[in-house]
Amino acid sequence: MPTPPPSSTWHLVGGGAIGMALAHRLYATGEPVRLVTRTPCPDPVELVYRDGDGPPVTWSCPTTSPSEESPAAGRTVHRLVVATKAYSVGDVLDAWGPRLAPGARVFFLQNGTGFRRPGDLPEGVHALDAVNTGFAAFRSGERTVKQTGDEPFQIGDVIGRSAPAFDSIIDDLDHLNRAGIEAVWTPSIREHQWLKIAANAVINPLTAIYGCRNGVLLDRAETSDLVDSLCVENDRVLEALGFGAASRGLLERTRHIIRATASNVSSMLTDLNRGDGRSELDYINAALIRAATDHDVEVPVNRSIHDRVAERFAACRSR
User: Fold this and answer.
1) Which of 35, 57, 218, 291 is the most buried (most CB within 10 A)?
2) Is the pTM of this model over 0.90?
């Protein structure tokens, strides 16, 4: 099989559940993909993918790492998908920024906001945000992922363009859709980001506090009441940010996400269980509280929940 040109290869950073699921979708339809790992690992690496309750599929995923693709190799990366936690984005761009070709597209799949720094990307590289609340998966083993939800990705840029500005971006979206990864361009990406933050600021901290999978939040009276209270506050924040029309039905949408991902372990609980003290708290819950403060919205339940989670992560760091 001929080696695909570098410009067509998807470099996918992040070996978590979403990264592994996306890599399989792309690879299964013939898209050239390389899963980027922190350190060198077998190339290819044997992974297992399950779509819902379907049969497991074992496949060989090509891999690479920053140490294997040094800046000396030149600016040859045209498609970079960053599927890491928000707190890792800076390190990813430090490692891969020098490898990005002029006109490269970088897709950011992070929860939250505020994870990119000015000057992170070389001039001429296109930053694209990809927001999704229903493309859900979890790892049932070190190299096994089960996909539990499949909804469209909303794709947009910080300018809020009504359509992609470059043919290369249109081509990328076409390839994603052909791979069964529904990608829809939106001029309202900031609105979609905040709607996701509003839901994540409920599910993530509560599962971290109570040490439970997502679905348990609706099974217990105490946590179900907290879901309701947080959604009331978050709806007010969204309205203050100018997203009032879109925020209607936030409670129903959050409950739908909880049910759809009932068997999943949230990213924040995963971080807490890892025990190194790193978390997305500043990019999700603290970001929402800062927005509330800026717009004079009272969010006492959010502040209490934030502080309870922060104490748990602080305890991890002090061990």
Assistant:
1) 35
2) yes
Q: What is the CATH number of domain 190-317?
A: 1.10.1040.10
- DSSP secondary structure code for residue 220 in this structure: S
Assigned CATH topology for domain 6-187 = Rossmann fold (3.40.50)
Instruction: Give tens-digit pLDDT for 251-289.
Output: 999 999 999 999 999 999 999 999 999 999 999 999 999
**Tens-digit pLDDT profile for residues 77-113:** 999 999 999 999 999 999 999 999 999 999 999 999 9
Residues noted as catalytic: 196
Q: Which of 105, 74, 102, 106 is nearest to 89 (CA)?
A: 106
- Report how far residue 157's alpha carbon sits from residue 166's, in angstroms, rounded to the nearest whole number: 12
- What per-residue confidence (pLDDT) applies to 1? 42
For the chain, the domains span 6-187, 190-317
How far apart are the C-alpha atoms of 264 and 125, rounded to whole Å? Answer: 34
Contacts of 258 (CB under 8 A, 6+ apart): 203, 214, 215, 217, 218, 227
